[in-house]
Design goal:
The protein folds into 3 domains: 439 residues, no CATH class; 53 residues, no CATH class; 81 residues, Serine Threonine Protein Phosphatase 5, Tetratricopeptide repeat (Alpha Horseshoe). 72% of the residues lie in helices and 0% in strands. The N terminus is likely disordered.
Length: 770
């Protein structure tokens, strides 16, 4: 029986179409981060398709014994099918890497931020295999046409964002539109994966309308790739087209000569861009052209922080070369070997942060998370695919152009991912291509003859089959609810609370009550979902702390204390959930410092322990040293603070915070000359030395050493920043009194009487002491 005759075949096709529609799906706050909602729907739909497949073609094996599925399964498990066994090996090595991971739970589930993890990776492999088993050869063109159509819609959304159209629905991006994928680089790689097969179809197609459809789609894909300014995708386009043209199955001498000329002109164009001090006016005046040309700068490329990230990744890889740190755990190795002296390391590509969770290079990403054997298997998989497609090109001329397009896509994909990494959409298309390649190279065994007596099911077997079907159904419902729908609901509430906490920044300061209400609503949401148990426990708690961080300054003194205490309790839970995540320990140390500085000194041990652990996980992380120095200052370990600040400066002199803390340390040690020296350098390095928090920090140091001339300066500056704060005037008056400058002290006391009549009695009492 053919799969196409099955009443379930249309369900499978609908399921594949729904999955391929997912790159277009982006509906915040439910489907945010962008890959999160896509991945959840993907898992739900694919798990239903797996269930139907097992129900129909495995548990009803006798009924479908002689179907096309049987032939495909025979091919799949044959010893000669290296592609399938490499897929199985890749899945197996990732499973081992997960089992021996430093953070198994995170390796298995990942987080909404990247939507990775072993489970999702396993689903991508199953998706490729299931597509091969279910889809017939004539189904594949329908599937690819639909994928191209969705790619067109995704590209159109990017253009609308770029042009600032439909502002009520779409966010405007004057450059580098991300479309529905949330990131311009991910958008570029997704469209790159669709481009070369689209070109192959356009050349093969005989109908004019469809030929135009493919050509217009290709033009749109390339145009939007250019808009993303993604150098990784640009390189992928070049590599793919070079393969497509110069290794084309037919001679096409003229096309190859013209392409060679274009290649030479392109190389000269890049040379021209990098040697001319000023570009032509038409480029300077066009923002998009200027942006594209700017990405071709070799000097900028060599300064890319990716190179520094790779150096750290190499050191981490040497530490755990066999199974790595576990899927999704690149940050553990990166933190351990983080070196702030490396150029640009403080800026992860696309974000101003030194907390890297990806290497932006598939070699170091795979090597660090699953080990060198996984990397070898991964490269072998693509090597075998390229070889078998090349062999098929010679055997079956009717499929040669399609195979050639797939080869170009794989090479472009590897070239682009040498400077980037995968997202849901790129995984989806790449594994669909693997399934398609399996379909092209498969040679199913002949269908065995029907044996009615042999295939007659026994009653006991039917009963056992029914039991297995029931068990499968219960597992399906449990998996969909507990590991998909429930986390999906939790994450939507997290997004809502984040939105409320962040939106109050835009509210006018004249509405403090409205601000407090918004914060209360955000905190109430987080508190309500905190007891919910799921694989999002660590992610939920980090976001709860983020909401507290947004709201803590808006609360009264008592409310601020309760929030800081709550943050500390949550972070204590989180270091148990993810003990190798440096930021958990750093945040715990920060909140322990906040509590110690403002409310309770008994958090001293918690702060020291947390920051020592963070330092062990990331020995050269200046942010950790900075917070640890603050702990030393709070507990009176001034010599230790000075030594740590010097270590911090030696790691990277550009880090202004280290100079500031060195200045504070010397101030506490009453070495004012050196203190002024360090504080001056901190100002030169653009540390906010004249901010309220900086003046308050310096004030505490001057109070400790009774530096009254310094206090006159700090309180004078604080009055400029907060002229409505009577305490600053009172403190300034006291400093003048201690210096013997009675007239100046009187002036400040009289100002208090003038500006703050409610404090008249206290001011008059002070005047009597003068």
């Amino acid at each position: 029986m053919e799969v196409k005759n099955s009443k379930f075949h249309w369900i499978f096709l609908l399921g594949f179409f729904l999955i391929l529609f997912l790159p277009l799906l982006n509906l915040p706050p439910w489907f945010s981060p962008p890959d999160w909602g896509k991945t959840i729907v993907f898992r739900v739909v694919l798990s239903i398709l797996i269930f139907i497949f097992l129900w129909q073609f495995i548990l009803n094996a006798n009924q479908y014994k002689n179907s096309a599925i049987t032939g495909k399964l025979s091919f799949l498990f044959s010893k000669k099918n290296l592609v399938f066994w490499l897929l199985v090996s890749l899945l197996g090595i990732y499973l081992l890497a997960t089992i021996f991971s430093l953070d198994r739970n995170f390796s298995f589930w990942g987080s909404p931020y990247r939507s990775g993890g072993f489970l999702n990776f396993a689903f991508y492999i199953i998706f490729a295999v299931l597509a091969f088993l279910i889809l017939k050869k004539k189904d594949w063109r329908k599937v690819w046409d639909f994928a191209i159509l969705i790619g067109i819609l995704v590209a159109i959304v990017a253009i609308l964002q770029w042009q600032g159209l439909f502002k009520d629905i779409l966010i405007t991006f004057e450059s580098r539109p991300p479309s529905t994928l949330g990131n311009p680089i991910m958008l570029a790689i997704y469209l790159l994966l669709l481009s070369f097969l689209t070109l192959s179809f356009s050349i093969q197609e005989k109908k004019l309308t469809k030929k135009l459809f493919y050509f217009l789609a290709l033009f749109l894909f390339i145009f939007v790739i250019l808009l993303t300014y993604s150098r990784a995708a640009y390189l992928g386009l070049v590599v793919g087209f070079l393969w497509l043209i110069f290794v084309y199955p037919k001679k096409l001498l003229l096309v190859k000569v013209l392409s060679g000329i274009l290649l030479i002109l392109g190389i000269y164009g890049i040379y021209y861009i990098n040697t001319q001090p000023q570009l032509p006016e038409f480029i300077q005046e066009n923002k998009t052209l200027k942006g594209i040309v700017g990405r071709l700068s070799i000097e900028r490329a060599l300064q890319n922080p990716r190179i520094s990230g790779w150096k750290v990744g190499w050191e981490a890889l040497k530490d755990r070369p066999i199974l790595g740190y576990g899927p999704e755990n690149f940050s553990i190795g990166f933190d351990k070997y983080y070196n702030p002296s490396l150029s640009g390391i403080e800026k992860m590509p696309g974000a101003v942060t030194s907390w890297w969770d990806r290497a932006h290079n598939f070699v170091f990403d795979i090597g660090n998370t699953a080990g060198i054997p996984a990397l070898i298997i991964y490269l072998s998989l693509f090597g075998v695919l390229l070889f078998q497609l090349q062999r098929l090109k010679k055997k079956d001329l009717s499929q040669s152009l399609t195979c050639h397009g797939i080869q170009a896509t794989f090479l472009a994909y590897l070239a682009a991912n040498f400077f980037s990494f995968d997202s849901f959409s790129s995984y989806l298309i790449s594994f669909l291509l693997i399934g398609f390649s399996l379909s092209l190279i498969s040679l199913p065994d002949p269908v065995p003859e029907q044996d009615s007596e042999r295939n007659k099911p026994a009653k006991k077997k039917i009963q056992r089959t029914g039991l297995w079907k029931f068990i499968l159904f219960v597992l399906l419902i449990w998996f969909i609810w507990y590991f998909n729908i429930k986390p999906f609901q939790i994450n939507s509430q997290i997004n809502l609370a984040d939105h409320l906490a962040n939106s109050e920044e835009d509210k006018p300061s004249s509405l403090p009550s409205a601000t407090a209400l918004v914060c209360d609503s955000a905190l109430e949401i987080m508190e309500k979902i905190l007891p919910e148990k799921s694989f999002l426990d660590g992610y939920l708690r980090l976001h709860y702390v983020g909401v507290i961080n947004q709201c803590i300054d808006k609360k009264e003194l008592t409310g601020g204390y309760l929030l800081a205490k709550k943050a500390q309790e949550i972070l204590k839970e989180n270091v148990e959930i993810r003990p190798y995540y440096t930021r958990n320990w750093l945040l715990l140390g920060q909140y322990s410092n906040i509590l110690m500085e403002n409310w309770e000194e008994e958090t001293k041990a918690e702060a020291e322990t947390s920051l020592e652990k963070a330092h062990q996980l990331s020995p050269k992380r200046q942010q950790v040293l900075q917070e640890w120095i603050k702990t030393d200052l709070l507990i009176g370990q001034y010599q230790s603070a000075k030594e740590k600040s010097e270590t911090c400066i030696n790691l990277n002199e550009k880090f202004a915070g280290c100079w500031w803390l060195a200045g504070l340390s010397h101030a506490y040690l009453n070495d004012l000359e050196k203190s002024d020296y360090y504080l001056k350098i901190a100002a030169e390095k653009r540390y906010p030395v004249k901010s309220k928090s900086s003046w308050l920090e310096l004030t505490r140091a001057y109070i400790e050493i009774k530096n009254y001339p310094g206090l006159v300066e700090t309180y004078s500056e604080l009055i400029k920043l907060e002229p409505d704060n009577p305490q600053h005037y009172a403190s300034l008056a006291f400093a003048y009194k201690e210096l013997g400058q009675v007239e100046e002290a009187k002036k400040q006391a009289l100002k208090i009487i003038e500006l703050f009549p409610e404090h008249k009695e206290e001011a008059e009492e002070f005047l009597k002491t003068l």
